[in-house]
Amino acid sequence: MSAAPLLEVDDLSVRFDTDAGTVHAVDKMSFTLAEREVLGIVGESGCGKSVTAMSLLRLLPPTASISGRARFDGNDLLGASSRRLRRIRGNEIGFVFQEPMTSLNPVFTVGRQVEESLRTHRGLSRSAARKRAIELLDLVHIPAPERRVREYPHQLSGGMRQRVMIAMAVACEPKILIADEPTTALDVTIQAGILDLMRELRERLGTAIILITHNLGVVADIADRVVVMYAGRKAEEAPVRELFARPQHPYTIGLLGAIPLPGAASKQDRLREIPGRVPSLAELPNHCAFAPRCPRADELTRSEVPPLRSVGPEHLVACFHPGGEWTQ
Amino acid sequence: MSYVELATVNPRAGRRRLLRKRLLRRPLAVAGLVVALAFAILAVFANQIAPYSYRATDFNAILVHHSSKHLLGTDPLGHDIWSQIVFGARASMEAGVLSTLLALAIAVPIGLVAGYYRGWIDPVIARLTDVLLAFPFLILAVGLAAILGASLRNAILALGIGAVPGLIRIARGEALALREEDYVRAAIANGARDTTILFRHILPNMMSTLIVQATVTIPLAIIGEAVLSFLGLGVQPPATSWGVQLNAAQDYLTEAPRLAVYPGVAIVIASLAFNLLGDGLRDVLDPRTQR
Lengths: 328, 291
Fold this sequence. Notes:
The complex is a heterodimer.
Chain A: E1 7-18, E2 21-33, E3 38-42, H1 49-56, E4 64-72, E5 75-76, H2 82-88, E6 93-96, H3 110-122, H4 126-139, H5 145-148, H6 158-169, E7 176-180, H7 188-205, E8 208-213, H8 216-222, E9 225-230, E10 233-239, H9 240-245, H10 250-257, E11 309-312, E12 315-317
Parallel strand pairs in A: 3-8, 3-9, 6-7, 7-8
Antiparallel strand pairs in A: 1-2, 1-4, 4-5, 9-10, 10-12, 11-12
Chain B: H1 3-6, H2 11-24, H3 27-44, H4 46-49, H5 81-117, H6 121-133, H7 137-148, H8 152-178, H9 182-189, H10 194-230, H11 242-249, H12 258-285
Helix pairs in contact in B: 3-5, 3-12, 5-6, 5-8, 5-10, 5-12, 6-8, 7-8, 8-10, 9-10, 10-11, 10-12, 11-12
């Protein structure tokens, strides 16, 4: 991880102006992504992880206002013209959505849909795009790709469709692949296959990957580095081994404690859950957002926002009382 | 749907076969289709089918009842009524189909733009549509035809424009719903151009709705053409249409009511056929209906 990172996000904030008031979905997020790196962004539903990713390509509805900086390969993403942005989307940054069942247009063959971005970004002819589409379906391990390109989405299973979505996203060999919960809607065995595929694509195409998930198992499997988000803010960031070995933020510790382990059931009847609820993002608290659920909360946590500080090599945590074992 | 129907080799042909099967299960829709096609054939081949020209007069047979020479008899000018009905079908079909196509050509792009781009343009278009919809379709068409002048071409223009606001509303509503689809979002994330999204992702997915809407707009235009021609705002004699024939029949209602009955029945059957077809297509193309 030398030189300038491929993607550098700095102080990214996203607000939504709704009838019920302003919702602060993301508050001052910063992170970097190096070439060929897999970055996992983890958090509960509604913590702002998808919004973070979508804001990078400005895929949010017009009610969203984005501030901060995002530099990609020397370009400013958030200030890019819509023309420039359109050339980046799908061409230099690929995006895979959570819903493979509905993310393909039902009236066109999957081949045509894979060809679409090739024809848009690469100006390929119909026959060249078709040839490449077959190669791409082969790359994502869809059997009999020559036949599958002529099939419609409803003829494919969920796992197959997600593979098609990935083929579409990597069609132009983007430098970054952003995958927003790519495995959530799929069976566990299919999940593993998709993760293997993403790992393989990183090796073969050299694509850096941002993987957004609520599943720590997925992160442990594939990510190099992890950002844990809570209520729109970064709670902790560390290389994956470091995070699992020495989690510092009580929220991270809570998340790890909530993973069911075979055999552990004998010692402990219940999974340890994190008490309380994810706070509403209507109002950003001017204290630690996790304080109401945190056993370590004290006067300080309830009066100030904890700054990010370094607790080890590349290990950042936003907590006044970081530390290892969490004993109640 | 059964597995047999899904497991076809060519998916497009499979879908077509499935739709045909679903259509054939609806006898009323099939009847509508057959009758509508019959009227279309009458209209296209009027010259070959009608035994006489619509202008030919037979002064030896004035106001006669049906005979082997004159299938449905003749009118006071000695016109063969069957020939008049056949040529009337041509005016009706032209008015029905052309004005509907015209309305679609105007309304669909406007509705797409309003529904897809939203912004300031959407409320402007939506409110203008509401204002136009406040006028009943026929009143609007009569007004437009009065302004444009009486001819079949102007009647088609008037009926087409009269049908625009309703179709805008439908196209806009569909575009509004479809722009939120995941595959549209995915296309945007893949850097698709607006034209690609509009014409490859949104328009094809609203086609079934548009087809149904067109099929129920055609009978309205057929009736509209008859009304305009009856009022003297459409087809002008000696050219003929069912409305013109109804108008001419007024003076003979007591002596020869059949003069009014034949074109009247033709109007009813033609518009009923398209309505039945439209209803059937709505069910056939709607994936939520099970049969």
